[in-house]
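Hey, resending since the last one bounced:
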Amino acid sequence: MTLRHIILFALGAILLAACNMTLAADVTPPPGYVPPTPVPTLGPLFPHQAPDVENGKAIYAAKCAACHGESGLGDGEQSKDLPVSVIPIGLPEFSRDATPAQWYAVVTQGNLERFMPPFNSLSDQERWDVVSYALTLHVTNEQIELGKTLVEQNCADCAETFANLETMSALSEDDLVKIIREGNDNLPAFGSGFSEEEAYAAAAFIRALTFAPPPPPAVESATQTPVAAEAGTATENASQPEGTQEAGAGVIKGQIENRSGETLPSDIKVTLHGFDHGADPGAGPTEFLNEQGAVNADGSYIFETTLVENQIYIVEITVNGIAYKSAMAVVPAAATELTIEPIVIHPVTDDIGVLKVEELQIYFDLASEEAQIFSVYFIRNDSDQTLTIEMRDGQTIPFISFPEGAAGLGYETTDSSAGFVSTESGFALPPNEEAYGLIAFASIPKSEKIKIVQPAMLPIGAVSLYLPEGVSAEGDTLTDGGIQDLQGANFHVYTAAPVEKGGALEFTLSGKPAAVTESPDITQNQTVLIGVGGLGIALIAAGVWMYLRDRKKLDEEDEDDEDTFEDAESNLDAIIALDDLHRAGKIGDEAYKKRREELMGALKRN
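The structure tokens again:
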């Protein structure tokens, strides 16, 4: 398959993601196979109320920006860790032909080919909010003002004509431009003479008419001065971000719960981070506040500041080299007090024996030249101690192993995982009622019969295997669950007996995937791995084969590329090919950065 085929398919199945993959582990399934719970089904493909793009901003910052980047250019910090390039949804080339209903469907059910999970944690309205915000990433305030002028001068009935949310959810920006220029049964053409810039500006304004009304006009706010509770004196001033509405003075408070059995340092500080989006709908969240305050003897802290609706606050504290961070708190309307969830400090241990694997799900893709293995671990820390892990080589996690003979490709946390905590030399897993979710990616040479030996570094409570239809497994502890239909794709499902710590799960794979064809269209190949277990899990773990696809062919295509390209599509092809080669170690950092800057510059000019 050529890189162009991949790009065209991605354009057809527009991506909106948070980069972390979503796995929600709630309860341990009973012994034996439990029929999988499907991912969220699609309700009406239009919102019941006008989308709130301000709320969408906050959701995007929390769920999407880590991979997609603040402006949607696919350059988030976690994007470099993915085995596929992140689609730059903030570019008009990728958003103008997308309808809100299409992106809502992706957020709800996931995008299988690009590691896009379904976002179970978001309500139906929240999905519409974040989709609506994502569709504004390529729009500027100047475009909205231009569109407003053009529409008000040429289309007195536009506000009424385009008020129906169901109709608007099925229309892309390109569709709106066509109506503006050519008209339809309900509206005569009013922009047949518009330039392309004018037509898209008018379409952007018409789309904005369907959003919930913005807050009252912004006013210049007072200087914010967080104050440490004990000191009672002002710290450094922080200016209120432009474009926000002052809601009045208030307090932000919280608690450090020390269960470590040791006295916290007397000079320990808590850091308050404040984030806002300002007035530009295309901008990502901006940190406007970064202030330290003292922690009282009872573990409490308080900051006095100006609270503004929809601002986001997080507090952070470092104890014994472990950086603890609170959950995100969003300021409600007219709030005068905001309480941050408590941060709990536990005793520390380096004994991995405090952990156990509640469930292991293993998925196989046998359509590429090598067998791809996706092992999903649901890990519990039910102890009263925080486990610290040192990443001595920067790659090895001591409580997770790859199958014998497999090449490890890396790890990814899951979106609904309990929060891992960063340390000076690795990470930590505090006690948590929720499961920690980790996905381990690996590849293994393919043969007529593939022997899998999966060591157990921790006790494993339940095991499920998901094989492509046509492939079977043999093993002493396996139970055949038969063919299961998961989201329209058939998988041969097996369960296995629990595995003791130090033991191993052993089985042999044979057969060929029944659904694999020679078609170059990846939608015709069952290389997609969907794991939906009895925990309500939806694992979207497909596309790694693209990362390991034929490098020789890619090299030959790269050598044929010209230094400049005539269109945006060719530039995007070259950028993604370049990213793949760099990840494979075939291009040095300096050459990669220089060439990517050239290609991005050409893309912007196109």
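The first strand starts at residue 249 and ends at 258.

Sorry for the duplicate.
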